[in-house]
Queue: 4 jobs
Job 1
Amino acid sequence: MPFKNYLFWLAGLVSLILDRLTKYWVVQNFEYRETWALLPNVFHFTYVTNTGAAFSLFQGGVWLRWLSLAVSLGLMAFALFGPNRDTLEQFGYGFILGGALGNGIDRFVSGSVVDFLDFRLIHFPVFNLADVFINVGIVCLLIASFRPESDSSGRSR
């Protein structure tokens, strides 16, 4: 590939686009607090907003927009100037980048994040695809951290 850590950039871009498209769809098709039951009492689409971080922590925290920006810029610098990462690490960091950018854009534009994934079976807080991508990225990095390192020939050490 022509540039380093290309899977990082691909994962970041795809996750950002999917997050932005789904939030746009929700805002265009739902009234605030409207809910659509896909599986009644199990899974709904419910349009709400969140001025805080995950699970509505730190409500009204204006500093969260700057944290999203700092994380995003840090990850981009890491991919550009850091070493070549293995596939799972690239996907992990890329998904975290896409999620941080997606929620960060919401925070800068409107001061709150659009949430709509509503799992009622377990009474889980409403969330969005950016949150999903951040968590998938963390899982990728956890799995990568437990895998044996390999040398330049691809063999485990």
Job 2
Amino acid sequence: MGRPLILHRYINRQLFMTTVMVTFILVMVLVSGRFIKYLAEAAAGEIAADALFMVMAFRMPEFLQMIVPLSLYIGLLLVLGRMHMDNEMVVLQAGGQGHGRIVRSLVVPVLVATTVVGMFSLYVTPRGDAEVTRIFEEQKDRSVLELLTPGRFHVKGSRNAQRATYAEHLNREKGVLENVFVADARFEGQGDANRLLTVWAKSGKLVLEDGISYLLLTDGFQYQGKPGQLNYREIGFDEARVRIGGEKSDSRPPEVRGRSTQELVSVRNENQEAMAELQWRISLILTVPIMALAAIPLARVNPRQGRFYRLIPAVLGYMLYVGMLLVCRSAIEDHRGGPLPWYLHMAWIHLVAAITVFLLYFGGRIFRRRAAA
């Protein structure tokens, strides 16, 4: 009884340390790339700088539910591969501790990882996505004054209407902009239907009236039309108001990724996106035990082959597995009309993966018996 417990603790301790290290590296790589993207949006004035860390915090469960299965898979490959390289597996097998004992030693860490990914996938991540959607909706309602970065142009609008705002200085305590430039363009068609309004003012400040935000500009000029045309006008003013915000809009329902799993189950037959999201969440959970079982035979290497002999092919196999799930998810979302055909269910991908794992364990014996027969 004592030797199996020592073996379990030894393997689990090595696996835990390796998995944590791999998870930390992958999180840093993934979070850094996403943070740079959000930082660029903050620099462009599309999102407030103080909301960056809140968005990243709510995105973290989504990152982890993708990283933990891969980290556990790589951790198993590294730990078991090292044990094969150092001939520890030979010693264990000589002592009566075969691969069945190794598999039983990994039951606890695989169950823990599966539980963590399940909690993230089914409960935590949807709430985080809903909060991220809420934050971005709030950013749309925030005024130019709150998002404006001094010395940079802030462009906001749609295809048919755009507004560029610039301020040389911003006194956030007094809420006063200095040397303000506003260019408001409306594109409704060709020719005279297009309108361009340009305003320059010495200063400006935010005012609120009837729930609508205005920029009160003082001591400036308004230019309307295109230079060189007869209808071009220049008007000086002491005070002028520019509307920079709309009335508070009702909160929209969250996107499919932000809906709870219970809601997805109830609407899965009427909404293809809900079906794709529900299957994806379940698939993330199934990848943990399937790939963990695959890592045990894949980590079996000859000391002459090197520790990383099968690491790259094994990782490529994992990427192929997850890539097929992502392709199937996109195909389900794009499907229109009628029930889903069998190939638009992710179950067959997991079945193929399970059969592949079975062949990794018993394929050699089956083929040898057939050859001998």
Job 3
Amino acid sequence: MTFEPTPVSRAREQVERQLREAILSGTFKTGDKLPSEVELAQSFSVSRTTVREALRTLDSSGLISKTPGVAGGSFVRVVDHQALGVTLGDSIENTLRFGNIGFDEVIRVRRMLEVPAVRLAAENRDEEDLDRMRGFAERQKKTTVDDPEVPDLDTNLHVSIAEASGNRVLASFVGALHRVIRPALYVDISPPVGKKTVSQHLAIVRAVEQGDPQAAASAMEAHLDYLDRLPAAREANGY
């Protein structure tokens, strides 16, 4: 028998995973208020910054909502299609790590889902969808490739496109695949690659904004083709 090292989760990921499992298992129910950042930091023996990052990810995933103010905090949301995406992602990740499906198979399914999704987004998007897409794309323009938020921005942009399709199940699957394969970690990103990727994202958003399904699909295909040609960095994912 041979053993291989497995990647150690960052503190933020460990906090996020345990809180997510507590929500999905029913330990924390819909409407419940989570312990404060100070209490969570003490419980996990991590910094408040680490807890804040984990809560931000759970908020983006739709599992919690953050309310400011003295009476505010982090509250468990209704389990919806976004939570379904998280559950699907966990199942896919476990199968990848311990089962017999390959990483390349997941990459191919991503293409099968995202090209039709962007077509539908161009047909069905509303102003709120467009504002969300533009927001993520603009934040990408202002960041650098070594920013730790890059993977989450990439995932959030693609998920927002899928959500604009109007099919929540489709959006759940796209979100699940993105959160597992983490495309921004799958490829070897350099500043020129980051710049090219952002320009491709902007082209996709423009096509969706213009309501042109064919242009949107072509822009997404070009983006995925470009990623497929880049040097892989799969060890970042542990696969």
Job 4
Amino acid sequence: MIRRFGTPPDGARRYKRRPGAYVALLRGDDILVTRQYLPETMDAPEIQLPGGGIDPGESPIPALHREVYEETGWHMTPPRRLGAFRRFTYMPEYGFWAEKLCTIYAARPTVRLGLPIEAGHEAIWMPKSVALRVLFNEGDAHFLSQL
């Protein structure tokens, strides 16, 4: 059984399974996170591990490299899998309720190619100790605390 973080599922709702890959990008005691701004759908920006959904036909590792580049502008070393968790949430950018199956990895950033190319994302370096307090979801924080 894959551990769940966050709100339990509502039995009256239908959830679409949405697999995703996310990464803790560590450099010394610092971690690279993203601040996601979606003013039309959120009251406040969210601090998240870089990553996102795995598109149909896409494998997790190429999806992770793509998402990291889009959200941070960085490339990374080959990632090491840490584990996975589930989270039930509404995804306003897609207009549906999702059972997010989040696989978490660890890697090191290698080179920054530019600014994030995905709208509404800002790449931020912060101490790991700060990230543990401000990450938007408990699952991300759980896996970061294991490193």
